[in-house]
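During the reporting period the student researcher (J.K.) took over the structure-prediction task from the postdoctoral fellow and processed the backlog of single-chain submissions. One of the processed entries is reproduced below for the supervisory committee.
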Amino acid sequence: VIQRDRLVSCLLAESRSLGITVRHEVDVASVRWEGGEAVLTCRPCGEEACQLEEAVEGRAAAAAPPASGGEYELRAPFLVASDGVRRTVAAAVEAADRERRWALPGRRFKVTRFEDTSVRVYKTVPFRPPEDWRGDINYSARTAKANFDALPAPGGDYCGVLLIEPEDELTQGLPDVPSARRYFDDLLPMFSPHISDESLQAVIDKPTSRLPQFRYAGPRLHHRNTALLGDAVHSVKPYFGLGVNAAFEDVAALGQALDDSPDLPNALRAFSAKRAGEARVLVQLSRSFDLGGWRSFAFFIGPLILDGIFHGVAPSLFAPNTLAMLQKPHLSFARVRWRKRLDRTIQLAVLAAAATAAGRLAAV
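J.K. obtained the following structure tokens:
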């Protein structure tokens, strides 16, 4: 697990080393396709005028923002859309596909959204651990009311993420620092002494943030000269680090497809064929971990228990649990799901046979 700001700074440094122009505080308002180009309508989204990085000659975009800071257009012969959960480009592709006169069943581009059955919100909680705590590892705590995970930050500080229910006392607004101190003393007594009053005030002042919904796009991940990847085509809750790792895999697959084929349309079709199914299975698997209520036991906790028992008894026959298999980089999401479905079929057959045998013995 790597902290978001560290990851962003690494990616930004790598982008600059490649001569890529990075424009901060710019929002893509819309996109359309004209001839062989994607045309993006952009606008500043920050309080101050956006400043451009100095572009390397030949790498700059086809247009620059006007001095007034208003809307402007960018034209690109090749567009990679990784615009996150807002999915401006994905929405434009979906709208363009709806206008097609005909398409084979199931072949129109669509963003599939799932209802959130286990709603959680979060707040960030900075703190500084004491000198006798290690400063190179993550810390976490699980309670009946909340989950707390803290990652090291530069300078010895830690950034904690408190995951809570929307109805939690903290989300309703604590009136002052003493009330917040009592809240954290009760909820996280091992961390509370190391959270300063200034940090508690910042926690009070900052509104809660929502986790992304489970969504995926498909059945293809391209449109004309545009490839879609990352959160633009698969968004999951950040419990197991699957989202960012899958985005890296998308990038690698797109790079490989472009290397293998000098023809852009063929490369984009190859990329879609390799990653569209993975996007769908990733979201479906991740959602099964977060259903809540009795479904959480039926589709997540129960299978973990079964896998622990059967893998422990016959490791050569039964694979480890789903979470363990997802940590194996050589296994695709589709392969993991296929293997666990096979395991589950055999496990249920064994349990049914055992129950039948036990019933017959009891009847004797």
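The committee noted the following: DSSP finds ten helices and 14 strands in the chain.
J.K. will present the remaining backlog at the next meeting.
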